[in-house]
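step=encode ok
step=design start
structure_in=
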C-alpha cells in the first residue's frame, strides 16, 4: 500500500505559526494563573513565576477548598447555573417556536417587541427598582428571572427553526394528527440538538460568570455566588481565612490564594465544552425528508 504523504506549503506553515502564536496568547494568562496557584511562596513573592510553576505547592488549593464559604458558594453556583439554563432554554423555545408560525396573528409585532429590547434597556437603576418592588431582593429569583431571556439567543433559535428544520417534516406530522406541541417535542427539538446545546452553553457560561446581579441584589452571604466571592477576594482584598486551619502551617501569599480561587471558579465551566462538542455538528436534518 502506498503511504499517504502530507505536504505543507509555505502558506500552510505560516498559517500554522500564526494560529500557534494566537493560541499561546490566549492560553498565556490562564497558564500564568495556574502556575501562580501551584508555585511556592518564595517564587511568587520574588515574581519568578511565568508560564510554569516553580516549586510545587498545593497549600493554596487546600486553603481554598477548606474554606466553607467558598465551597458553599461553589455548590450554590452549580445549582444556580443548572436552574438558570433550564429556565432560560424553556422560555427561549416557548418564544422562538411560535414566532416561526405564519398563522400566528401579530407575530411581526411580537417579534419587534422582542427585538427592541436588544437595543434599548431601562438601565441599572430601573432594573434594581423593579426587582425591589417585586420583593425579589435577597432571593434566588433575583438571580434567575431578570436575565432569563437573551434576545440574541431567541433570534438564533428562531432562525434555526425557520431555515434548518424542514417544513415538509412538520407538515407530514400534522397530516398524521400531531399537534404543535407534539411536533415541537418529537420532531423539532430532536433535530435541533446542535443549536440547543450551543445556546445552553451560552446561558450556562453567562450565568456562571455573572456576578453583577448578585452584587446589586444580594446581601445575604448564603446566596453569594462563586464569582461574587472571587470578586470580593480580588478587588476587596478579602483573603481566605486560613488562621483556623490546623493542617496549613506554611504561609500562603495572597496572590496564590487569588490564583487558586480563579482556577477553581474557571475549570468547571471549561469542562463543559468537551462534553458538548459532539453536538457542534451540522447536517442533523440531512436525509430526514426523502425527495
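sequence_out=
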Amino acid at each position: 500500500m502506498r503511504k499517504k504523504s502530507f505536504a505543507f506549503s509555505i502558506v500552510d506553515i505560516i498559517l500554522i505559526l500564526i494560529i500557534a502564536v494566537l493560541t499561546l496568547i490566549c492560553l498565556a494568562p490562564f497558564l500564568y494563573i495556574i502556575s501562580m496557584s501551584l508555585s511556592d511562596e518564595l517564587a511568587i513573592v520574588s515574581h519568578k513565576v511565568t508560564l510554569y510553576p516553580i516549586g510545587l505547592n498545593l497549600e493554596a488549593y487546600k486553603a481554598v477548598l477548606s474554606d466553607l464559604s467558598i465551597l458553599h458558594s461553589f455548590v450554590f453556583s452549580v445549582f444556580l447555573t443548572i436552574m438558570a439554563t433550564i429556565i432560560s432554554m424553556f422560555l427561549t423555545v416557548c418564544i422562538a417556536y411560535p414566532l416561526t408560525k405564519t398563522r400566528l396573528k401579530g407575530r411581526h409585532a411580537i417579534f419587534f417587541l422582542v427585538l427592541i429590547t436588544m437595543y434599548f434597556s431601562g438601565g441599572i437603576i430601573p432594573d434594581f427598582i423593579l426587582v425591589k418592588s417585586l420583593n425579589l431582593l435577597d432571593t434566588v429569583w433575583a438571580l434567575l428571572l431578570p436575565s432569563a431571556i437573551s434576545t440574541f439567543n431567541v433570534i438564533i433559535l428562531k432562525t434555526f427553526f425557520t431555515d434548518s428544520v424542514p417544513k415538509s417534516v412538520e407538515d407530514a406530522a400534522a397530516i398524521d394528527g400531531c399537534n404543535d406541541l407534539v411536533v415541537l417535542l418529537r420532531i423539532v427539538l430532536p433535530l435541533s440538538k446542535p443549536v440547543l446545546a450551543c445556546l445552553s452553553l451560552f446561558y450556562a457560561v453567562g450565568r456562571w460568570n455573572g456576578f453583577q446581579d448578585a452584587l446589586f441584589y444580594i446581601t445575604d452571604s448564603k446566596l453569594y455566588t462563586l464569582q461574587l466571592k472571587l470578586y470580593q477576594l480580588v478587588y476587596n482584598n478579602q483573603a481566605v481565612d486560613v488562621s483556623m486551619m490546623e493542617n496549613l502551617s506554611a504561609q500562603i501569599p495572597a496572590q496564590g490564594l487569588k490564583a487558586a480561587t480563579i482556577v477553581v471558579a474557571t475549570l468547571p465551566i471549561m469542562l463543559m465544552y468537551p462534553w458538548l462538542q459532539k453536538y457542534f455538528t451540522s447536517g442533523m436534518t440531512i436525509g430526514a425528508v426523502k425527495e
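step=design ok
step=annotate ok -> The chain has two domains: 10-57, 66-279.
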